Amino acid sequence: MKTEPQLTIEDYQFFLEHVNGFVAIDTAGRVTYINKQICDFCRLDHDTAIGKHITELFPFSKMMDTVNFNQSESKTEFYFYEGRFSASTRHPMYKNNKLIGVAEYDIFEDMALVEAFVNHYINLDEELKYFKEESQRLLGAKYTIDTILGRSYTIRNLKEKLRHVARGDSTILITGETGTGKELIAHAIHNLSKRRLRNFIRINAAGIPESLAESELFGYDPGAFTGASKGGKKGKFELADKGSLFIDEINQMPISIQSKLLRVLQEKELDRVGGSKNIPIDVRLIAATNQDLNNLVSKGYFRKDLYYRLNVVEIHVPPLRERREDIPLLIEHFVEQCNNIFGKQVKKIDEAALEILLDYDWPGNVRELQNVIEK
Questions:
Q1: What is the pLDDT, as a whole number, of residue 211?
Q2: CA 366 – CA 321 distance, rounded (Å)
Q3: What is the pTM of this model?
Q4: N- to C-terminal Cα distance for the chain?
Q5: Quick one: average pLDDT of 275-286?
Q6: What is the biggest distance separating any 2 CA atoms in the chain, rounded to whole angstroms?
Q7: Containing structural domain, residue 336
Q8: Do 204 and 298 touch, CB atoms closer than 8 A?
Q9: pLDDT over 80 at 234, yes or no
Q10: By CB neighbour count within 10 A (0-12 exposed, 13-18 middle, 19+ buried), where does 246 fall?
């Protein structure tokens, strides 16, 4: 009959001495066993360490949590000790169904590999955070409905309308004078909508040369024209797919492009310049103008069918002279903004100066007010 080998106390001790970072405590937190490996690494005297409270040797230790919170399962903890990363597992020790102590040891033998992995993960996490912020800055909407300042009935009514129309996917036409904050309204609509986690792409129709307008909006395929990128290029509509596209100064859209824009809005698909296939898109269009489009239609400068397609929901942004009660709040905001930019400590504006600002008609609206405060 084969007999099982009998392990001696010395055998168990030999085993424990080769377990990385092994330490054991009783229920009072006193160290009952600590191996030479961890003593050497932490520069501890073995004989002195025995009997001491675990937090005297390792203030960051969580071994007493197992005792204090009556934890019956093993727990893994991550520590930084003297600039090094460590991952340890602690186990409750029971005898006759009674907790008699806690043992803890390091999970990994080669902590250098773990440190390298953690550092790599931290770097990746930081890079991901950076690219998310850059993506939000470049492709996201910067402003929210809270950025729209004002306590007047007009502004409160405007905000309520924005909350309502943002829920859907209808095309929105934002009208208003120069400087009233039409782009800010477009940002707010996107951030209130179900598309807020998708791209918010902006383009100013007045800033695009007519020769480039089609390729900028709808993109082009490789070799579409001389100087075209070899790989082709996505247009603003494709970049905004599943998100929102804001076209400012839509009244400046070249008449030659308006028919193609109308088709894209109706069919929800586009053709790239030089392309041979239809590309489906899902984009909510938000357009803005400081001109009376109906008047431009009557003069032949803007297509009537496109006007009706754009003007599904109209949001009119009131001029500043129609909400003068908001001027003090706007002044306070711009003063604080300028203080931060220029390192000033301006507390308030003189009452006489405020009266002048309240009486002025502000043809340039909020943008003009901001410029005046800055000056």
A1: 82
A2: 10
A3: 0.63
A4: 102
A5: 91
A6: 110
A7: 322-374
A8: no
A9: yes
A10: buried
